[in-house]
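@channel anyone free to eyeball this complex?
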Amino acid sequence: SQKIEQNSEALNIQEGKTATLTCNYTNYSPAYLQWYRQDPGRGPVFLLLIRENEKEKRKERLKVTFDTTLKQSLFHITASQPADSATYLCALAKGNTGKLIFGQGTTLQVKP
Amino acid sequence: NAGVTQTPKFRVLKTGQSMTLLCAQDMNHEYMYWYRQDPGMGLRLIHYSVGEGTTAKGEVPDGYNVSRLKKQNFLLGLESAAPSQTSVYFCASSYGTTNTEAFFGQGTRLTVV
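replying in thread with the prediction:
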């Protein structure tokens, strides 16, 4: 079965720095990969989607890369702010199977 | 625009009791999902549906049943609750094509004592 791994250790960085989070997967290659943000006590909120034929996607201060050879996606937040502190989840699905599988998430703490 | 609404938000059950969690979406989405979230385990898929009248098992389906009688509603049932089902449950929906995101409800915190 598909396995998705995110760094379970919290990431602590200083305000203004770039945060980089990693998502690794095994077995089949997904048609697309998504990143979500989750705040305590709330449901996840969609941030970005990247398709298997795309290398990079940007949205404001966010950037996602997708390396299907390494089976890895990197999620970057540039000029990080304390308000970026949250848990970030990656998720993937294979084609139209309908199954959307999530990693366990990485908690980011941005210190002022 | 309500999005995805889960009912109830909190519930305490005794072992062996049954209950149904309701998820409603007003976005005309085809796909709907039920997840549970436990500390250190992340979101795990329980059951999902790719359209009205259809359901399928996810990663951790044992002890749960689901129904999708109407497109906008997806029900999750616990027939005989166990303490291991203590968790936060999230419902989500999506258009179901290959390129769209999932919208989540606010979660239901269930405690089984």
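from a first look: Residues 88 and 106 of chain A are 5 Å apart (CA to CA).
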